[in-house]
Amino acid sequence: MGLDFSKLSYLRLRAQQILEDQESSLRYFAHDVGYQQYKGKNKISVSSTATCVLSLVATGKWKASKAETRALLEQLIHKKTSAGLPDNNPFTVAWILEAVTALQERYSDPLEAASIVRIGEMEEILRTAVAKGGVKIDDYPPQAYLTQLVVRVLKRRSKLEEHEKVVNEWARNELPYQIGLVQAKSKTADPFAVAYLVMLVTAVTPRHETTPEQTSIQRIGLSTFFQCQREVDGTWPLSRPLFHYKAFGNAYCYEYEMLTQLLAEPRLQDLLLDYLPNLSAAVESVCQSAYSVEEDVLAWTSGHHPQLRFPESWATASVYHFLHVLDRLLSEAVRRELFRYLDLPYPEPVKPDERAVFAKKFLDSIILVDGNPESLKKFLREKFVEPLSREVTRVANGGKFRKGTPRSAIFFGPPGTSKTELSKEIAKYLGWPYLAVDPSFLLRNGMEGIQAEANTIFRMLEETEGVVVLFDEFDEFVRERGSSDAEQFSRLLTTAMLPKLASIHKRGKLVFIIATNNIRQFDLAIQRPGRFDHVLQIMPPTYEVKMLKTDWGPEEDVSLKQKLEELHVEITPLTEQHLGDLTFGECDAFVAALVNAKSPQNATEILDAHWKRCIMQTRFSHDEETTWAARCKTEAIHNR
């Protein structure tokens, strides 16, 4: 990726610090219900207003009331031109329709019937404009910028349909040509066109139709574009003119508007991680070119029109939007850097269809809720994973979990009860990477380096978002600080871990779970509110769910219930208890042995033998006579 964790963290911090001024900066350009192109123009600008709207919506900072938003949309929808361009031109129409798409459903009161009709007309205008592939205005040739603008609006409104193929064909033919112009250093070379064509090709080509050759061309396109970045200031040479403004002159692409769209294309994310040093240079350019027009008000100009010696709203909005999508890319880079640092492979994204049902194959057990037995899966689904899943998009967009949303838990109980598997199921349901951290990571540099390693890992976790973290086998590190056998380094780590866990919880960007077999040795302070939202006892699967499972055994083809019926085994309360005490792995081993049973007595003997050596019937430790079954009974916690 070219940037280590410290540089990634610094770059994110710098971007986030600038983003704090976004609302005050754009408020500086506000006029009536919209935004003016520059301070003092005192007239709503269509494209400038749309750019400001999209920037604020992206960062979750659109604060206008639904009535105010409706008033703005009603004004925009009935405008047919901007800056002297022809009526119903694709540039003006696309910007208006993109603002409508961003605001109509969530932020606005219902629109007038005439406005709904006009929206349909605008969709047809854009569909007509893209019917031949490339989009243009007047006598200018088709432009990648205009085409990508129109295509992204139509795709978001599910209106591109049959035109997708013709756009694909146009963009695929145009991309190598534009790459060739840049590499030949032609006077007509335009790196912006290369970038927009890479976006277009990616957006209109289904993933399953993308060939290795096409991926190579996309890589070459990105490489060609970033090679054109100026070392002196991190900017790019001016693009070719898009069209002509009668009042201002030629219109050009603006690098931060372009970079916003480039970074917002999810399927380019992996490739763009290689260009983080280039994007870091672009951030430096942002910092160097800012106007400080008022206290806490930063603003920027595109520089396209030398006669305008003051900042513009649309350029300012584009810079803030760029910093936001860059922060999203950096958050992915931080996630990957964490896995890289721990020498773990970065997991593939979970497919949506695999997240449809929570823990579908996980065998259920029982917990106590308000003193009553209840399904563990039901409790976790309703009280933990569904509240989390409702806010996954919020975190993905740079926000954090709302106050009161549970995002941490302790899973305790006997060994073999699939606490790790349950944590993986939570990660799968959320669609987030799963990360297991055990004490071996802290001991990589020996005993003397354990504190430094813990600080490094927790520092990285504090910067990480969108991950389910399992702290496994950490009993020694969170044990009762006053216990007589607590070693010095264990006490030290306990003291260090508690505030770090509280900090991670407060940040509200990821989910973390501690799995332990021994809840009694946990420091009581670790269970205080603000550190863990749920403390759940994970027990072996119930007798009932074991009997329903039809794929036990080495070949996963044995029904326990059917096999017991074939052997004419009488199901007594004692039989139910013995089967209920077996963990998943123990029950699987029992069924494998049961396959060879010849009689009811033989089957009962096999079950009795497996039960006597199961976890629940073994002693908790060599120093205690207490079995796991007895210990679990006394440790049961009533959940609410």
Q: Which secondary structure elements does this structure contain, and how are they paired or packed?
A:
Elements (H helix, E strand, L loop, with lengths): L4 H15 L2 H6 L2 E2 L2 E2 L10 H13 L7 H12 L12 H18 L5 H17 L14 H13 L6 H21 L7 H14 L7 H16 L15 E3 L3 E3 L3 H10 L4 H4 L3 H14 L1 E4 L2 E3 L13 H29 L24 E4 L2 E4 H14 L2 H5 L11 E5 L6 H12 L3 E4 L1 H4 L7 H14 L4 E5 L15 H20 L3 E6 L17 E4 L5 H6 L11 H7 L6 H9 L2 H11 L5 H13 L15 H8 L2 E2 L1
Parallel strand pairs: 7-14, 9-12, 9-13, 10-11, 11-12
Antiparallel strand pairs: 1-2, 3-4, 5-6, 7-8
Helix pairs in contact: 1-14, 3-5, 3-14, 4-5, 5-6, 5-7, 7-9, 8-9, 8-10, 9-10, 9-11, 11-14, 13-14, 19-20, 23-25, 24-25
Would you mind describing this structure in some detail?
The chain has helices spanning 5-19, 22-27, 46-58, 66-77, 90-107, 113-129, 144-156, 163-183, 191-204, 212-227, 255-264, 269-272, 276-289, 313-341, 376-389, 392-396, 419-430, 439-442, 450-463, 488-507, 543-548, 560-566, 573-581, 584-594, 600-612, 628-635, and strands at 30-31, 34-35, 243-245, 249-251, 291-294, 297-299, 366-369, 372-375, 408-412, 434-437, 468-472, 511-516, 534-537, 638-639. It is α/β, with parallel strands linked by helices. It has 3 domains: 5-226 and 235-341, Glycosyltransferase; 352-539, Rossmann fold, CATH 3.40.50.300; 543-635, no CATH class. The strands form 5 sheets. It has a 5-stranded parallel sheet. The protein has a 3-stranded mixed sheet with strand order 8-7-14. Strands 1-2 form a two-stranded antiparallel sheet. A hairpin with a 2-residue loop joins β7 (366-369) and β8. α13 runs antiparallel to α14 (313-341). The longest helix is centred in the middle third of the chain and has 29 residues, at 313-341. It is elongated, with a radius of gyration of 30 Å.
